[in-house]
Amino acid sequence: MKRLVIVMTVAALALAGCGGEAVVPQGQGAHGHDASSAAPPAAGARFNDTDVVFVQMMVDHLQLGISLSQVALSKATSQEAKDLAGAIDVTQREELDMLKSWLKLWDKPEGDGASLHAAHGGEPLLDAAVIDDTKNQSGAEFDATFLNLMAGHQGSAVEMALKEQKEGSNPEATAYAERVVTTRQGQVQQMLKIISQS
């Protein structure tokens, strides 16, 4: 119950002052085009520590989101939850490839997710153990858990992206952060709507 309250609080903060945007349909990239239609943007060589930490944390964040989405694709019962999981899976795989290429260009490691989060405020809302726990659920219980966990997870991405927008120096990274804020706020809004109607 405590985790649920935290998740919904983060989700609410992520939505503050924003109308959001509809989630990207399955099979499309983050800009609404087919994921294979264009190569991801390459990051410039100018960057600071904030850019590196943001990208490293987002790599871990995206991998966890993909893992939870994969579980939802096999276990979710509502079509809305399945569609959402599919859209997140497709878009975040594209973003993950892009961010890994940036770290390689910058000659920076991907980093350890748990250590990164511990250094910046504590444990993430979502981790491998939490994802494993969802595999024991089914039906409406699983759908509700998935939506709540993913809402909090995407809300956390908004918080990280807002910091990058303020303190980052790499133009591509800050542009990506802006995209994260817009798309994740839209996803959180959509998930909260589904939750409220269930």
From TrEMBL:
PROSITE patterns in the cross-refs: PROKAR_LIPOPROTEIN (PS51257)
Source domain of life: Bacteria
Residues covered by the DUF305 domain = 51-193
Keyword presence, Lipid biosynthesis: no
* Keywords attached to this entry: Signal
Signal sequence region: 1-22
Q: Does the keyword Signal apply?
A: yes
Looking up InterPro entries in the UniProt record yields:
DUF305_CopM-like, Ferritin-like
* Name of the featured protein: Uncharacterized conserved protein, DUF305 family
Source organism of the structure: Lentzea fradiae
